[in-house]
């Protein structure tokens, strides 16, 4: 069992990793750890997460009210998004929010990460949907995030960034790393002419491996055959281009018909 001080030190260490890997710019990003059912430790707003020391870390209750904050440090304004995850997922012990460039580019382009292209990404994440855009610091983000929480451990936040969660901080951070690596590979493979996707049989085998590994958390593999939020989202730039082409064709036909 880690002490509160050890958890604060780990939060600073994760801050350095997130910053040094370019997963955030300037003072962006935030993460939190559930200490117990009443208390949450969280990173402060307005500071670079790459240069924190333990006294920077703030403590809030489940309503987001400040319990502890040294000097001028104040909890991240995005804490509401974290609290919603803890409310809806009692199994979660830590939440990480960052803006890693490849994953965030997909979030900005409105393309969810759904193509099964490499075993590790399929086993760790499965699919990553996009939660509809919400204004930061308001309840819009937690409200739009909520429907995905029971089914996934990672989401893209439309036109914003990414959010991951897990049983502890290291695991939640690792999910963010896996998510960004998956997005980077998908982007690069698309630039090379398109990723070669696994077929359904290959995906089923990987899902089976995940089950045998006894991995915790939620994953699309646990809901095969069910309609879950995000399953209607299309995952490829090509699909999106096809949809766009269909819409243009519809409009042209409508105009031609009107001219007749
Ligand atoms: Zn953000």
Automatic annotation (TrEMBL):
GO cellular component, one term: cytosol
Keywords on record: Lyase, Metal-binding
Record's keyword annotation contains Lyase: yes
GO MF terms, alphabetically ordered: aldehyde-lyase activity; metal ion binding
The organism of origin for this protein: Candidatus Pullilachnospira stercoravium
Location of the Class II aldolase/adducin N-terminal domain: 9-187
Keyword Transport assigned: no
Pfam families: Aldolase_II (PF00596)
Highest taxon above the source species: Bacteria
BP GO terms, sorted: pentose catabolic process
Protein name: Class II aldolase/adducin family protein
Top-level taxonomy: Bacteria, Bacillati, Bacillota, Clostridia, Lachnospirales
Annotated InterPro entries: Aldolase_class_II_sugar_metab, Aldolase_II/adducin_N, Aldolase_II/adducin_N_sf
SMART domains cross-referenced by the UniProt entry: Aldolase_II
């Amino acid at each position: 069992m880690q002490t509160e001080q050890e958890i604060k030190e780990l939060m600073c260490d994760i801050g350095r990793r997130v910053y040094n890997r370019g997963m955030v710019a300037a003072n962006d990003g935030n993460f939190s750890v559930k200490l117990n059912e009443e208390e949450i430790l969280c990173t402060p707003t307005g500071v670079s997460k790459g240069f924190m020391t333990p006294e920077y870390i703030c403590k809030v209750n489940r309503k987001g009210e400040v319990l502890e904050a040294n000097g001028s440090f104040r909890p991240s304004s995005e804490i509401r998004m974290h609290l919603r995850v803890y409310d809806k997922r009692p199994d979660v012990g830590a939440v990480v929010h960052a803006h890693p460039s490849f994953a965030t580019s997909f979030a900005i382009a409105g393309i969810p990460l759904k193509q099964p292209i490499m075993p590790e990404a399929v086993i760790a994440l499965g699919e990553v949907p996009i939660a509809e855009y919400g204004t930061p610091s308001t309840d819009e983000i937690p409200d739009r995030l909520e429907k995905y929480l029971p089914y996934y451990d990672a989401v893209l936040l439309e036109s914003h960034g990414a959010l991951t969660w897990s049983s502890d901080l290291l695991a939640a951070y690792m999910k963010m790393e896996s998510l960004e690596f998956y997005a980077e590979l998908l982007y690069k493979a698309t630039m090379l002419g398109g990723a070669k996707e696994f077929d359904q049989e290959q995906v089923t085998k990987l899902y089976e491996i995940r089950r045998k590994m006894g991995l915790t958390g939620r994953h699309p593999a646990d809901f095969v055959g069910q309609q879950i939020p995000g399953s209607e989202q299309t995952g490829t730039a090509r699909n999106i281009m096809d949809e766009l082409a269909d819409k243009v064709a519809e409009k042209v036909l409508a105009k031609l018909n009107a001219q007749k």
